[in-house]
Amino acid sequence: MPSATKTRDSSAEDANMEDITPPSAQPVVDSQEGGDPMEEDGEDNELGEEEEEEEPQRVRILPGSTSTAASFEFLKEGHTLGNALRYIIMKNPDVEFCAYAIPHPSEDKMNLRIQTYDTTTATAALEKGLQDLEDLCDVVSEEFWTQRENFMAAKH
Amino acid sequence: MAPSSGRRAPSAAELEERNTVGIRKEIVTNTVSDDYPDNYANEEHAWDKEDFRRTFKVQFHQNDQFEAQFSLIGVDASIANAFRRIMIADIPSLAIETVFVNNNTSVIQDEVLAHRLGLIPFTGGKKGLRDFMGFWRKPGPEEDAYATTFDTNTVSLKLAAKCTRNKDAPRDSRDPKVLYDNAHIYARDIVFEPLGGQAKWFSGEDTIRPVNPDILIVKMRPGQEIDIEMHMHKGYGWDHAKYSPVATASYRLMPKITILQPILGADAEKFANCFVPGVIGLERVTRQEAKTKGSGYEGHEGELKAVVKDAMRDTVSREVLRHPEFEGKVKLGRRKDHFIFSIESAGQWDSDELFMESVKTLKKKCGILRPQVTNMVQTF
């Protein structure tokens, strides 16, 4: 690496800059809390060759939940997954209520509330939601690619 | 399941109405998704993959390397929005992250220069960028500053130039580009220095280079010089906009213009002028139409009438609603499930590839979380 910069005491300055985040009301599960955003995503290891390392657990069920009425906390997820998941879970006829929230914009957390009828459980509804969303993605990418091919073929 | 109420299946007109966001002079109506179970009696609306496969449509309007326009028809806003957000913030790309300023006597301050450099979009061999290059990790407090820097996660660039007087410049010249050498430094002056295995992936036309070579970085005058080394890393748009692989990724809902009563003659021309050119066409009233009783065209054969030609081009400015003569004659709206996407790539990905990647990313997000939900500790 550049020799001119090698000797510089690199990160000492930055290390002290870390803000002290106010304590969360919820116990912290993830040890990476408050860490550098670049240290993100264990799967993206530097060699890029090895298959995915083990993913840190990013979902937990919040206290006060019952089997048919539960709140889930997702770490490092936001409106992107929150709203899509809420939509697909609301389409489940066994679900009475589903909503998501981002309790605080500077905490990288997303909460999802699911209340179901007696025919299923909240956890099962969440699993089905994730599965349905995956199925949806398959259909979207298939249709998108066929139409792309058609369009490009028609152009030439 | 919805309780049976003896209600019949909704008519085509009702479905059309449900699927339209009404746009009136000052208010919008029917903006909320209602395709959920129990929302309408005797209607299912549960998620069904095969139903979705039948109703979901994609239409391409344009597909150039760095610019694409297409419609997703039959999805909810929450899904379309997820794809849009993923394209902006969750697809990785390579950008300048660290700038080592060995010398900078130009008038641009080091930090401003560094920021400018960071925002320059670069490109290079796709395979190398996707497969060979991985993510850089910040070294721990005990580690050497470069302990985590490898050829597989860092691209090194150099930019060194000194502005000098051009001895051969004509005496009467006033153009700094003629009077001086290196008066303007452009993105094309940045030199890529392959490290380790990078030569194999990024050589020839695959070399790491600015997407647009003509981006002006700094202007100098004789005696000023810059000598800079840069490190590029992979990152995500959620960390910094410079890592976003798209210049823009947006969607709008398909506009819908319904002419309720005939608009004829001079009015028709005025009507057309209320819209973007090409949206409204003028046609002559045919003999057939003029003959039809109750059509409103009786006795107007050969006159010009306004017809909707291409609603997609409309901007829904609502200009037409300001004129009293068109009151009750036109209805504006937008199709709730018709999203016209417009994607402009910053250069590292092809625009259609970006959308495919966003779908893949959403699927991956779900795929990672699903087993975690299954294995979650149930503490309640």
From TrEMBL, chain A:
Source domain of life: Eukaryota
Keyword Transcription (UniProt): yes
Pfam families, per the entry: RNA_pol_L_2
Entry GO MF terms: DNA binding; DNA-directed RNA polymerase activity; protein dimerization activity
SUPFAM superfamilies: RBP11-like subunits of RNA polymerase
Residue ranges, annotated region (Disordered): 1-65
Biased composition (Acidic residues): 36-55
Localization, UniProt: Nucleus
Biological process, per Gene Ontology: transcription by RNA polymerase III; transcription elongation by RNA polymerase I
Keyword field: DNA-directed RNA polymerase, Nucleus, Transcription
Composition bias, Basic and acidic residues: 1-11
Domain DNA-directed RNA polymerase RBP11-like dimerisation: 70-142
Entry's Gene Ontology cellular component terms: nuclear DNA-directed RNA polymerase complex; RNA polymerase I complex; RNA polymerase III complex
HAMAP family: RNApol_arch_Rpo11
Family: Belongs to the archaeal Rpo11/eukaryotic RPB11/RPC19 RNA polymerase subunit family.
Protein name: DNA-directed RNA polymerase RBP11-like dimerisation domain-containing protein
Automatic annotation (TrEMBL), chain B:
Domain DNA-directed RNA polymerase RpoA/D/Rpb3-type: 67-372
GO MF annotations, alphabetized: DNA binding; DNA-directed RNA polymerase activity; protein dimerization activity
Entry keyword Transcription: yes
GO CC annotations on file: nuclear DNA-directed RNA polymerase complex; RNA polymerase I complex; RNA polymerase III complex
One example of a Gene Ontology biological process annotation: DNA-templated transcription
A Pfam family assignment: RNA_pol_L
HAMAP family reported in the protein's UniProt record: RNApol_arch_Rpo3
Homology family: Belongs to the archaeal Rpo3/eukaryotic RPB3 RNA polymerase subunit family.
Protein name in UniProt: DNA-directed RNA polymerases I and III subunit RPAC1
Source organism: Xylaria multiplex
